[in-house]
Every structure is written in C-alpha cells, then in structure tokens.
Design a protein that fits this description.
Maspardin, 2 domains, two-stranded parallel ribbon, single chain, mainly alpha, 7 helices, AB_hydrolase_fold
Length: 138
C-alpha cells in the first residue's frame, strides 16, 4: 500500500461492517465510497475481502474499474445454473470433456495487455495437472 500511495494513488484499506446479506454489504460499501467521494475504484481483496469485492462488482459493476483477487472465495451457484448439463453428471464424465467445458470460458484470439495472455496460458496448462475428480468439482 505504501508503494502505491507513494506514487500518487489514493489507497484505502477497509474493514467490512456487519451486514446480513451480500446485497446489504454491497450497498454499505457503495455508501462508504460515496462518503469518500469515490465514484469508481480499482479493488483488491484477499480471501473474504476478495469475495466481497466480487459481490460489490456484481451489484455495482459501473463503480469497479478493475479487480485484483488473492485466494478469493466465490459463489459458484451461478455457474451450476448455466451449466450445459446437470452438475451431478460431471462426476461421470471423462477428463477431456470436463477440460473442454472449462476451456470454453477462456477468451480466444484476443489481444491482451502484457502479462494477461501469459496468465491465461498458465491457467490452461494447470488444467492438465488436475485429476478427473478435481475437474468435476471445479
């Protein structure tokens, strides 16, 4: 944080308030941003903070310039809802089919900023290290 603030960036580390729903939390963070006169921001979150950054981006995408996440938790129910077949069937599918389902979500033939293409390539190579059981639960 000191490195960024030393370069002229406004950096805030925020604890999360008590909220009973994800939407309530996102709305409270939007109010915090408004109180600090922040229209939009780059968000970085670790673990639960990463999950909360994703939640905020879901409810207020226009206020998120970018997301940087480390060990973020995510709600995967939306993926199950949009799956090409019932998720329970994944346990019985061969690895190569599961890999294809995952790879369909990766961008193809696009120009990426420096480092992004390499990161995508690395993720794709890591798929080859996963077992069928691990792929079925991705």
């Amino acid at each position: 944080m000191l490195g960024l603030s030393g370069r002229g960036y406004r950096v805030l580390a925020v604890g999360y308030p008590v909220a009973w729903t994800q939407k309530e939390w996102a709305e409270s963070f939007a109010r915090f941003m408004a109180a600090k006169d922040i229209r939009s921001a780059h968000l970085y979150g670790v673990s639960l903070g990463g999950h909360l950054a994703l939640v905020f981006a879901r409810y207020f995408p226009e206020r998120v310039l970018s997301l940087a996440l480390t060990n973020a938790l995510c709600d995967t129910s939306q993926f199950a809802e949009n799956a090409p077949m019932p998720v329970a069937a994944y346990a019985y599918m061969p690895s190569f089919v599961l890999r294809e389902f995952i790879l369909e979500g990766f961008p193809k033939d696009a120009a990426f900023p420096v480092g992004v293409g390499e990161a995508i390539e690395f993720q794709m190579m890591q798929l080859d290290t996963l077992t069928q059981a691990e792929l079925a639960h991705v």
